[in-house]
Amino acid sequence: MSFRPLASKAPKGSVSMDPNCAICHAPAALACECEARGLDIAIRQAEDHMMRSVYDDIRSWVRGHAQDYVLEYFRLLTERRKNAHTTHLDQITAHSFYHYNAPPHPNQIAEAQGALKRGIDEDWQASVQRYPEVLEYFYGLVELSLPSDDEAAVKDPPLSALNGHRKATRRSLEGSTSASSDGRRAPPALPSVPFPPTPYSGRDMALDRRSSQPLARRPATAHMSTPSSSYYGGFR
């Protein structure tokens, strides 16, 4: 109907006979929106069928790497802070023995321990607040490639004209894969990173708050069942 491409000009003497709407059977001249809405529904259903697992894999991959980065960032911050705390304790101990020939007063130790705890809380808050930029960075590393219009599978898809059965081939999704058909989009850089991200090995510690599960590999080929009548059922 309204979304159909215009047919070429009919030869002189022929009769133009556009088909009625496949949904409500209204004449083509009314240009109803039934077929366009039905196509939108079919696209959403096909996308959910074929792409949901891909989106889940991407989300899980990004989540895991972002958590690894944030945990490593936090570990480095706290390591630096604990080293400063140890140096501070050594200084007050040396000062106390030099002037009073006695260990530091317990209140001094408690004050230093409290400052360390507050600093660690600040480090964790600063690390967690980096999630938005870290997530965008790793999402920027994902690449979904579209096939060329010249490929045989695009120019001559294996669709049966008799029963409408489609043999859909899922393209493999690589782990280090920017969503562009023209080439890789450079991922945004992570600004103000004081430490290079390194593999984090302390996943058994209480700091590791990850709950993501290992990714299950999708088969390279999936078969899409014949579209059901529910695609356009709401417009009858």
TrEMBL record:
Residues 188-199 have a biased composition (Pro residues). Residues 223-236 have a biased composition (Polar residues). Residues 155-236 are annotated as: Disordered. This is Serine/threonine protein phosphatase.
